[in-house]
Amino acid sequence: MERNAKLAGETVGPVETDAETPRRRSAGGRVKSGQIREMLEQEIVTGERLAGERLDEQAVALRFGVSRTPVREAINQLASAGLVELIPNRGAFVRETGLAELVEMFEVMAEMEGMAGRLAARRIAAPARARLQAAHLACENAAAREAPDDYYYENERFHQAIYDACGNGFLAAEARRLHQRLKAFRRLQLRVPHRMHQSLVEHRRIVAAIEVGDGATAEAELKSHIMVQGERFADLVASLTPKVS
Description:
By secondary structure, the chain is mainly α. It contains ten helices and five strands, in the order βαβααββααααααβα.
């Protein structure tokens, strides 16, 4: 079952409690649809909201103190990510994501990121190099602060910088699309003990390979960075129970 002994993703951090909801607000203190989406997606992937459960727009709006418009936007984003199913005349329902489906998506993600890294090593231009270095430094700083939520968002920028540097717009767009679909599951990755600091070590190897133009190593390092095996895989699956079966 080698296929089922792997899972991918860079993920981060503890799920926020209602007392912390939402963690990030706009400058004016208003809750945005993206923030609502983050909270709902974490509740879905951690099993707080079970497959088949209906998402009541009015109840969610009351919880966040907003109108139904940003809630509807958040639910539509979750539907695009495959976490929610929209049923005409019935509403939005949590969709079950099976382990086999996750493995398949993460295998494709690893291949895409590996290819982006290989091309970036050959094609990276000075502005893209500066963005990659800045994103890497931000990850270093977040890890030094032991701030997994901050690390997660900086990690997103790190991977986006690699997509930007690859010089293939189609690949970059598809990688972003799949990254967005898998972000909730990737975020859980840092629940695995010591994962944030191990991720940072892997980032250093990826940057070093891209810096010297070693496409083969950059590709291999990124694939390994995305894939999770052995005990880390078992720990991640346990964190998803009972959501993933």
